[in-house]
Amino acid sequence: MRLLIVGTLKGQLTTATKIAMENGATVTHAEDHEQAMRVLRGGKGADLLLVDVALDIRDLVMRLEAEHIHAPIVACGITNDARAAVAAIHAGAKEYIPLPPDPELIAAVLAAVANDSRELVYRDDAMARVIKLAQQIAGSDASVMITGESGTGKEVLARYVHTRSARAKRPFISINCAAIPEHLLESELFGHEKGAFTGAVARRIGKFEEATGGTLLLDEISEMDVRLQSKLLRAIQERVIDRVGGTKPVPVDIRIIATSNRNLAEAVREGTFREDLLFRLNVVNLKIPPLRERPADIMELAQHFVKKYAEANGVPMRPISAEARRVLSTNRWQGNVRELENTMHRAVLMAQGDEIGPDAIITPDGDRLDLAKTAPAVAHATMAAEQVTRALVGRTVADVERDLILETLKHCLGNRTHAANILGISIRTLRNKLNEYADGGIPIPPAGTPGEYPRMPAMG
């Protein structure tokens, strides 16, 4: 956990520093915005900024956004002035802490940002085998590929491997390859020199250099552009990187852990992922089973989340009734552990009486989980997919894939998100396919949700 404290509050921040360090944080100080930006560009990085409310927080937020630096801000001040707190939140701060700081409050904020509460909870033998392999290879420097459906806990397992490695006291840096636009991802990974492109106002150290000595997690690496994969392969092989606009290679010492919710062997066959990069990354594969294939974990995790959210919300910790257990055990959990966690959080808040009953096990829309019906768009898309898969003999894979994608999109009423979920591909992959079809003169159904993607003109 890396904490950057910005401001000079007459010793009050010294107390905050002491509390943070007692909770395992590495603390860096900056007197003002300029110094803070130099620290962030320089490679020390920060998981959290604790900023004096007297400073211009909106200006700092805008500076961070302009240079694509992602770090949450918590404002702090020596008074309980509600207006100052509200203004700080409106300016972009995530929270406001009055000073002098309460030790428990500081610890809670640090834990929330560092996700220290995300424990590795399991009971099922299928998951136990994965954990055993993770323990065996944690002490090495071998690259690790963690695969599994969305929500299974891939990042949690990556942190588990890091904390049991010889690099545990060094940085654990994570970057989501699917969440950052392609034209910015290279700079995020490798950094850039001043003037390398529009908006590059100063040298910026990338994630590779930030992670030196520690572990770099490349989350959802399957979404990385093939061109950038070549540069990544060189960095892994030669242990050097080139900043964007730079002229001199920079040595790095990191361990790579990558995750993917897609079958990368298929991506290699499709030409969207380099085979040599896969070999480099996939020295050890930790494959996390979906929650529906590890039934013993369902109740273990459910009880863990009940305890966690009962304490967090200050409500009694109720046992889970036998009928509620049946509902939980028979659900498919398409969203895996993440879906189960959200469900149990709602259950803790909705439960009445002495137990958590089935009426408290509900969907986000408020329907009972065991009575919820499939959304119409999803049902239509499923039917479309079944129809398209008939009469496949004599057709090319590319033709079948195109028809499946377009028919699914049509029956989803143009909703890209629903279509991508049904097809089991990322939105980026779907968008690339649609652009390819549009370039070939094939009409594309317009987006069903305004603003989701720019409408593609029907051609032909």
Question: What are the salient characteristics of this protein?
Answer:
460 residues; alpha/beta; five-stranded parallel beta sheet; 12 strands; 11% strand; globular; disordered C terminus; activator; sequence-specific DNA binding; ATP binding; nucleotide-binding; Sigma-54-dependent Fis family transcriptional regulator
**Major sheet:** 5 strands, parallel
Q: Name the shape in a single word.
A: globular
Fraction of residues in β-strands: 5-15%
**Taking Cα atoms only, what radius of gyration do you get, to the nearest Å?**
24 Å
- Total number of helical segments? 19
- Structural class from helices and strands? alpha/beta
* Percent helix range: 40-55%
Trace the largest sheet across and list its strands: 2-1-3-4-5
Distance between the termini: 55 Å
Q: What oligomeric state is this?
A: single chain
Q: Mean pLDDT score, rounded?
A: 83
Number of strands: 12
What are the low-pLDDT stretches, counting only 5+ consecutive residues below 50?
379-390, 449-460
Protein name: Sigma-54-dependent Fis family transcriptional regulator
Domain Sigma-54 factor interaction: 120-349
Modified residues (4-aspartylphosphate): 52
Domain Response regulatory: 2-114
Structure description:
There is one protein chain. The model is unreliable at 379-390 and 449-460 (pLDDT under 50). The longest helix is centred in the middle third of the chain and has 19 residues, at 295-313. Helix 18 (416-423) crosses helix 19. This protein has 19 helices and twelve strands. With 460 residues, the protein is α/β, with parallel strands linked by helices.
